[in-house]
Amino acid sequence: MAVKRRTFSRDFKLQVVREVETGKSQAQIAREHRISQNLISRWCRHHRRYKEKAFAGKGHAYTDDARIAALERMVGRLTMENDLLKKVLAKLEEET
Fold first, then answer.
1. For residues 50 and 60, is the Cβ–Cβ distance under 8 A?
2. Cα 17 to Cα 23: distance, rounded to the nearest angstrom
3. Which of 54, 75, 66, 65 is nearest to 9 (CA)?
4. What are the helix (H) ranges across the chain?
5. Residue 12's closest CA among 41, 42, 33, 37?
6. Which residue in 66, 47, 52, 58 sits closest to 9, CA to CA?
């Protein structure tokens, strides 16, 4: 029998982080919400690192690495387009 993983909303995660920031112990929060202390620690770490971008959605779209990878793909695509246009321009200049 497969175990379905629970998913938590951004608001819930921020609520848990706020509870930690107010001084409540992680053990107590974990018991109240029935989640692991490791998960709470991970959420706090992400919130400290990414601030308002934390918990933006599925995956790691908010991370710097994902943003850099997307920009590198865009640069690669634009470079290929420029090379193609330069070749076409060179052919047109040869014909005239």
1. no
2. 10
3. 54
4. 10-21, 26-33, 37-50, 64-95
5. 33
6. 58
Structure tokens at 59: 């995956």
Q: What is the pTM of this model?
A: 0.60
Q: Are the C-beta atoms of residues 20 and 26 closer than 8 Å to each other?
A: yes
Q: Is the Cβ–Cβ distance between 41 and 20 less than 8 Å?
A: no
pLDDT (tens digit, 9 = 90+) per residue, 47-81? Answer: 998 888 788 776 555 667 778 888 999 999 999 99
Read off the pLDDT band of 3 (50, 70, 90).
confident
> Domain spans of the chain?
8-58, 63-96
Backbone angles phi and psi of 67, in degrees to 5: -65, -45
